[in-house]
């Protein structure tokens, strides 16, 4: 069986080394807390206003402020800052905590679309940091798609079929 | 629904602050790589020789050397050292990666029994570090028990029944 990380690399097109190049620079020290708060605020403002209802609805059961806080606390912790996320919520356990959401290939791409726009519109993020983060986010998004498929293990065949978690159709 | 971390605290008896007091001291700087390698080697030597077959068999499909490396690389990364685990395998995703194993209350207690012994028999671990690690391990073990129960969501009732993932019987 292909590992989660192998699937993430294949589907994202980002290899492991590039994905975790965030660890070769301390992005928290470079960018500071405010920038991370701005980034997540910009991101979720786009997400909660998304004109694509199928994507927006994924987040409908969470409060926007909570989504923002969960995200920037995780980013800060993972990118060299204080462990804000674990102090409040424990282990990130990324796949398990995304279990309630349908993390399909299509949803990953839409998430990344908004994150790319958020990175562009957040002041004071230099090009090098932006590239490291984009690679990390892209790999992680598809790591979560790989994790989403675990939900269908030991389930009837209808699970996978019904999850719409297939590679996007080539006929567009 | 009670969160993963709330279940972990309740079942382990270790609150969130004590569990993540590993972050108030850099244990990697204090103890060094060799101590972490020794700890995991001591731990898995006990586990793979466990006289209790039900527990030993949980690990039967993994090579001992791989188990040791996965564990100490994660510990090093999580306790203030270089991100060895992520460089090689990506996100820890603790719950998802424990999915193949039956992480029951009983298995958590057996794991902790061996880890306590391993901590005692590994030289150069001071009392303060030992306490921080034990609290972290105890909370984390029951976080994974809570995660294990997610596997039974949307499954027929026989899943939970069959998983034996119940609180230990009081009649001993």
TrEMBL record, chains A, B:
It comes from the Eukaryota. SUPFAM superfamilies: Globin-like. GO terms for molecular function: heme binding; metal ion binding; oxygen binding; oxygen carrier activity. Keywords: Heme, Iron, Metal-binding, Oxygen transport, Transport. InterPro entries: GlbO/GLB3-like (IPR044203), Globin-like_sf (IPR009050), Globin/Proto (IPR012292), Hemoglobin_trunc (IPR001486). Coiled coil: none annotated. PANTHER family: TWO-ON-TWO HEMOGLOBIN-3 (PTHR47366:SF1). Belongs to the truncated hemoglobin family. Group II subfamily. This is Two-on-two hemoglobin-3-like. It comes from Juglans regia (English walnut).
